[in-house]
Task: inverse folding
């Protein structure tokens, strides 16, 4: 996606968002360790190229399919890249309506009380549900937070500033 839409990625960065990475082509679980490393590195390089500055890529990574092969986790740790996962999903990759994405996200978040919600920006149903989801979260006193790497010299590159989504 970074290779296909570099202006969009730069706009997202310019609007103040952190840009982490995924893999280049998505699958990992069936790959050799060397191929896993290449998938990770290629994804990071694509984002750095799209941003025009590799140092602007946040040291954050989420595994595709939420499958965490130990060799890939070890490789990311050696590169001081923080691995993220999720607490709940809205099933937005399934063929459901934007209303169903919204409903599932809110019900699951209410049940859990807080957490990291997985959404996919490439799904039209997600982009249609997102304004209503954000409004509902605000109305229910949830806070969407921007997670950024700690400032250089403050600690590990894997250290975070702020906290992830909470409710008052």
Result:
């Amino acid at each position: 996606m970074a290779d296909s839409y570099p202006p969009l990625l730069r706009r997202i960065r310019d609007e103040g968002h952190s840009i982490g990475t995924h893999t280049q082509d998505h699958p990992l679980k069936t790959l050799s360790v060397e191929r896993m490393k290449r998938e990770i590195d290629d994804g990071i390089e694509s984002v750095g190229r799209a941003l025009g500055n590799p140092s602007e890529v946040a040291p954050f990574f989420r595994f595709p399919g939420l499958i965490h092969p130990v060799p890939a986790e070890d490789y990311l740790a050696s590169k001081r890249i923080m691995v993220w996962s999720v607490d709940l999903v809205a099933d937005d990759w399934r063929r459901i309506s934007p209303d169903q994405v919204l409903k599932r996200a809110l019900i699951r978040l209410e049940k859990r009380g807080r957490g990291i919600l997985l959404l996919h920006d490439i799904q039209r149903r997600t982009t249609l549900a997102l304004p209503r989801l954000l409004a509902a979260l605000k109305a229910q006193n949830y806070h969407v937070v921007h997670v950024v790497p700690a400032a250089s010299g403050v600690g590990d590159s894997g250290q975070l500033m702020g906290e992830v989504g909470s409710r008052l």
Notes: Confidence is low (pLDDT under 50) at residues 153-168.
